[in-house]
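Lecture 7 notes: from sequence to structure.
We start with the chain below.
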Amino acid sequence: MGSLDVSPRPLGSRPGSTGQPEANTDTVSAIVVRKAVRYESFLGSGGVLAADGRQYVVASLKGKNGQLDTEYVFEASGQTWEADLSTTGGRTRSVADREWPVIGFDLPSPLSASTPRIRSEDSGERWTLGDDASTVLSEPGPRYELNGLTAPETVSQGEPMTVELSVTNVSETDGRFLAAVYWPTERIADDDESHVIERTVAAGDTVSATLDIGTSATVNETKAVTLSVEGHVSTSRDVRVEVP
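Predicted C-alpha cells for the same chain:
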C-alpha cells in the first residue's frame, strides 16, 4: 500500500557519542513513509500532497524549551534532501496525522535508500529509519488516471452542489488514492473550503466519490467560480453561482 510507520533509532554523530541523542536536543519520532499524505490547516482548509514519482517522509518533532531546530536533512545512499513540504491555505496544524510541529521531506519515488535517516543540521543528531523503510522507499507508487469530474454548470447561492469524481488505478500497484476538492468561500474570512477524497484502490480498479458541497459562503455577487481538484489527479471546472 506504499505506507510505513517506523520507530526511529537515534544515532550519535559527534566524536565520543554514545549513540544516544544528548539531553535537551530535539526529538524526532513517529516517522512515517508514504506515497501520498493528507494535511490539515487552521482557517478551514487542508489538502493533499500526492504526485507521480514522489513520496513523503514525515515525523513528529519536539524541542528543548519549546525551541525547535529549523534545519533538517534526509540522507540516503550518499544523497541529501532538505526538509521541505509545500502546503497551501492557512497555518498547517497536522501532516500525515502528526500534530504540528512536524518535519517532512518530498522525495523521488522509487528511491534506492541504503541506511535512510534524518539528520539535524544544528545538533548533528541522526535518526535512522531501518531496513523496512528502505524497502518502502524503493517501491513504485500507484498511478491514477482521471475518468471524469462531474459538476453542474449553474448553481443557486445557498443550494448544495453535487460533485462526482471518478478515477482508475492504472498501475500494477495497489494504493491509497488522495485528492482535495477546493471550493471558494469569499463571503467569510477563511481559506477556500476543501474536501479530501480518500479511497483504497486495487491495481486496475476504478472508484467514484460523490460530494455535496455547500454554496452559501461562495460569493457576494453572481459570477463564475472555479471548482478545482489537486492530488493524485488534477482538474478544474467553472461553475456559475447565481445570487438571489
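Points to note: Residues 131-138 form the longest helix (8 residues). The longest strand covers residues 54-62.
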